[in-house]
Amino acid sequence: MPTADESGKPHERPVLEPIRVLRPRNTDALAALFRELTDLTEDPENAEGYESVPLPTPEARTRELPPVPRIPPVPPAPPARRPGGPGGTGSRRGAVAAGAVLAAALVGFGCALLLPDGDRESAARTLPATPPAATAAPPADPDGSGTLREGAAGPEVTDLQQRLRRIPNVYDDGATDGRYDTVLTEAVARFQLWYGIRGDESGVYGDDTRRDLESRTG
């Protein structure tokens, strides 16, 4: 090991120089490729394994393309005429028929003007009379043909009152005078509600209520 001098001065050591590390850049490969291409261009004999491609001449670059032939437009087809359309056979027949009807009407009107008053009255008598309009049939009762409702009277109402008196707590001690009044309407509605009768109106003695009441009263 180096030791200090006897005079007390420190021992001098050699100064170390910094080391520079050179790393290849990506541009070095690009520069090498460019130099290779330059050498091939200057000396074509050394270009082994390469194929030369001729560059296009200025005349080839400016050469015009042949014109595209124009296709003449196809004319649209004429619309087909319908048989009954304008100018068709149907319209002609219709016009002829209308003309014949109009001519017959004019002839009849002229003959009526030329006839005397007596002949006009006889001609009017020979014309068929207009049949009377049929009378509208009355609407059918939705509750049945033998339906009884408030305001009715007669033996059928008496039979209804007698049958309802045989149903407990429906028409107890009710009148049997043959009149369909408010008390009888409430009794019929009570019977329909208690026994689940839904075919007739509430308080109306229809076919469904009649069928159920007769089955319970014998």
From TrEMBL:
<keyword id="KW-0472">Membrane</keyword>
<dbReference type="InterPro" id="IPR036366">
    <property type="entry name" value="PGBDSf"/>
</dbReference>
<feature type="region of interest" description="Disordered">
    <location>
        <begin position="39"/>
        <end position="93"/>
    </location>
</feature>
<dbReference type="Pfam" id="PF01471">
    <property type="entry name" value="PG_binding_1"/>
</dbReference>
<dbReference type="InterPro" id="IPR036365">
    <property type="entry name" value="PGBD-like_sf"/>
</dbReference>
<feature type="domain" description="Peptidoglycan binding-like">
    <location>
        <begin position="154"/>
        <end position="211"/>
    </location>
</feature>
<dbReference type="InterPro" id="IPR002477">
    <property type="entry name" value="Peptidoglycan-bd-like"/>
</dbReference>
<keyword id="KW-0812">Transmembrane</keyword>
<feature type="region of interest" description="Disordered">
    <location>
        <begin position="121"/>
        <end position="161"/>
    </location>
</feature>
<feature type="transmembrane region" description="Helical">
    <location>
        <begin position="95"/>
        <end position="115"/>
    </location>
</feature>
<protein>
    <submittedName>
        <fullName>Peptidoglycan-binding domain-containing protein</fullName>
    </submittedName>
</protein>
<keyword id="KW-1133">Transmembrane helix</keyword>
<feature type="compositionally biased region" description="Acidic residues">
    <location>
        <begin position="39"/>
        <end position="48"/>
    </location>
</feature>
<feature type="compositionally biased region" description="Pro residues">
    <location>
        <begin position="66"/>
        <end position="81"/>
    </location>
</feature>
